[in-house]
C-alpha cells in the first residue's frame, strides 16, 4: 500500500533560514524519481534546484512561485509505493510511536549531505483517550451580579436646567447641555458645571501615521543578505582605509606580452590577484579573521580570494579557492568561470562562502577610488580604480602614463597602519614594476 511522504525544505547550507520559490519543476500527479529536482528556489546566496529524496507520485505542493518559505516547511508530498519506498524514508504518523528513529531518518540530498550538527528532534506521542471516561459533573451555574437599570436618555426630553442664565451661558459658548452631567440635586445642571466644561481642554485627535510615499522594495533575498552583511561589518569592524596612485604602464605592457603568445588570455584582474596573494604571503595578518567569542585573531593558512561581480540580481562575491597556489592563467580561467555562473544565477552556496580576502575592481564602473566596506568576517579588501592615461613624472620627466588608484580597507584590530601600508606599497611596487613579483615566485 503506498505511503504519503512529506518532503520539507532542507537547510541549503551556511545557516540559511528561508528560500523563495522561483519555479516549480513538477506538478501534482507527476511521477518523480529519487533525487530528481522538484523546485527551483532562490536563497540569499544563489539559485538552487532542490532534489527530492523520494520516488513516487506528487500528491501536493506547498507554496506558490514567489512565496518565501522557512527552512523545515513542507515543500511537497509524494505517494511512495511500498516496493519503491527509499531506504530510510520517514514513515507515516502511525508508525512514529514504534521508536525506530534510525530507520525513519530521511536520506540525505545529493550535493548537501547530512547535517549532523543538529540534534535529532524527538516527536511527542499523544496519549490515546480512553473510550470510557469518568462522568464529569455538570458545571454549576453562577448567578450573575445584579446590574442596576439604566434609564434611557430621551433625545428630545427636557434638560435638567432651571436657571435661564445657565442656558444662555451654554448657548453663547456652544456647550451641549445634554452632554453634561449635573452636579446639583437630582442631576440638576448648575452654572459651575457649564464653566467646568468650558475650562476642560478639548480632546486632541491622535496623530495618524502617514506612510512615506514612493516605491517600497522589500529587503529580502540577495538584497537583504547584502544589507545585513554590510551593516554587520560596519557595526563590528573598526575599519581604516589607505590609498596610493601607481603607474600601471609596465603591468599593462607585461599583460600585452603574455597575451601575444599562443594560449588563454590573461586578464588584468588575474594579474592583480596574483600580486595580492604574494603580498598576503608577506603580510599574513591581513589574511585573517577575528573570533569575538574567543577574543582571538585567527590567521588563516590558505588564501580564498573573493572578487566582486555585478549581476542582474545585484552584487555577488564568488570565491576562488586556494588562490595562492594558482598561476595567472589559472586565476584568469577561474574568474571567467565563476563570473559566468554568477550572471546565470547558477552559483552554488559553496561558491559564495569561505573567502579570506576580497579584491574589488570597481574601476569597471569608470571610477577612480572608493572606500569599500569589508566583506565580513574578513579583515581586508583591496580596491582597484580605473586605469587611465594621466600626467606622471617618469625618470625625472613629465610623461603620460597609465595610472591607477589602489585603496586598502583593513580591520584595525588585526594590524596597525605599518602592516597595512607595507602591504599596499608592495602591491603598488609590483604594479609599477612587475619584475619585483618574480622574486617571490
TrEMBL record:
Domain (Lipoyl-binding): residue spans on this chain: 4-79
What's in the keyword line of the UniProt record?
Acyltransferase, Lipoyl, Transferase
Q: What class of enzyme is it?
A: transferase
- Domain Peripheral subunit-binding (PSBD) positions: 161-198
Give EC number(s), comma-separated: 2.3.1.-
Which InterPro entries did the record assign?
2-oxoacid_DH_actylTfrase (IPR001078), 2-oxoacid_DH_E2_comp (IPR050743), Biotin_lipoyl (IPR000089), CAT-like_dom_sf (IPR023213), E3-bd_dom_sf (IPR036625), PSBD (IPR004167), Single_hybrid_motif (IPR011053)
Name the coenzymes or cofactors required.
Answer: (R)-lipoate
Q: What Gene3D superfamilies does its record include?
A: 2.40.50.100, Chloramphenicol acetyltransferase-like domain (3.30.559.10), E3-binding domain (4.10.320.10)
Chain positions covered by the region annotation Disordered: 98-122
Note the Pfam families from the entry: 2-oxoacid_dh, Biotin_lipoyl, E3_binding
**Family designation:** Belongs to the 2-oxoacid dehydrogenase family.
* The protein's name in its UniProt record: Dihydrolipoamide acetyltransferase component of pyruvate dehydrogenase complex
**Which organism is this entry from?**
Streptomyces polychromogenes
Amino acid at each position: 500500500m503506498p505511503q504519503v511522504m512529506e518532503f520539507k525544505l532542507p537547510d541549503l547550507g551556511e545557516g540559511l533560514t528561508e528560500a523563495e520559490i522561483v519555479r516549480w519543476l513538477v506538478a501534482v500527479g507527476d511521477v518523480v524519481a529519487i533525487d530528481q529536482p522538484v523546485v527551483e528556489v532562490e536563497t540569499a546566496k544563489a539559485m538552487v534546484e532542490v532534489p527530492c529524496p523520494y520516488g513516487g507520485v506528487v500528491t501536493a505542493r506547498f507554496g506558490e512561485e514567489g512565496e518565501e518559505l522557512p527552512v523545515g516547511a513542507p515543500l511537497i508530498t509524494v505517494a511512495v509505493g511500498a516496493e519503491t519506498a527509499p531506504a530510510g524514508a520517514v514513515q507515516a504518523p502511525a508508525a512514529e510511536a514504534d521508536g525506530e528513529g534510525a530507520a525513519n531518518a530521511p536520506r540525505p540530498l545529493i550535493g548537501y549531505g547530512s547535517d549532523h550538527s543538529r540534534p535529532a528532534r524527538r516527536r511527542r506521542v499523544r496519549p490515546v483517550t480512553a473510550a470510557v471516561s469518568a462522568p464529569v459533573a455538570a458545571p454549576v451555574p453562577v448567578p450573575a451580579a445584579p446590574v442596576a437599570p439604566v434609564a434611557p436618555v430621551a433625545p428630545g426630553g427636557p434638560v435638567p436646567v432651571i436657571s435661564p442664565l445657565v442656558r444662555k451661558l451654554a448657548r453663547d459658548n456652544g456647550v451641549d447641555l445634554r452632554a453634561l452631567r449635573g452636579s446639583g440635586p437630582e442631576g440638576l445642571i448648575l452654572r459651575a458645571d457649564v464653566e467646568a466644561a468650558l475650562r476642560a481642554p478639548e480632546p486632541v485627535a491622535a496623530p495618524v501615521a502617514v506612510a512615506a510615499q514612493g516605491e517600497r522594495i522589500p529587503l529580502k533575498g540577495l538584497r537583504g543578505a547584502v544589507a545585513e552583511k554590510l551593516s554587520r561589518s560596519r557595526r563590528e569592524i573598526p575599519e581604516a582605509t589607505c590609498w596610493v596612485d601607481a603607474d600601471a604602464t609596465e603591468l599593462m605592457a607585461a599583460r600585452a606580452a603574455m597575451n601575444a603568445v599562443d594560449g588563454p588570455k590573461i586578464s588584468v584582474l588575474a594579474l592583480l590577484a596574483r600580486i595580492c596573494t604574494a603580498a598576503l604571503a608577506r603580510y599574513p595578518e591581513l589574511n585573517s579573521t577575528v573570533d569575538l567569542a574567543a577574543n582571538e585573531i585567527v590567521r588563516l593558512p590558505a588564501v580564498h580570494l573573493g572578487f566582486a561581480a555585478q549581476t542582474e540580481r545585484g552584487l555577488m562575491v564568488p570565491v576562488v579557492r586556494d588562490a595562492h597556489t594558482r598561476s595567472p592563467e589559472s586565476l584568469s580561467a577561474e574568474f571567467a568561470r565563476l563570473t559566468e555562473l554568477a550572471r546565470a544565477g547558477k552559483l552554488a552556496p559553496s561558491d559564495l562562502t569561505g573567502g579570506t580576502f576580497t579584491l574589488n575592481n570597481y574601476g569597471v564602473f569608470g571610477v577612480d577610488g572608493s572606500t569599500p566596506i569589508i566583506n565580513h568576517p574578513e579583515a581586508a579588501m583591496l580596491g582597484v580604480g580605473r586605469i587611465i592615461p594621466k600626467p606622471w613624472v617618469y625618470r625625472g620627466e613629465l610623461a603620460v602614463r597609465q595610472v591607477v588608484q589602489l585603496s586598502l580597507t583593513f580591520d584595525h584590530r588585526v594590524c596597525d597602519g605599518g602592516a597595512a601600508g607595507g602591504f599596499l606599497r608592495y602591491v603598488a611596487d609590483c604594479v609599477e614594476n612587475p619584475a619585483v613579483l618574480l622574486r617571490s615566485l
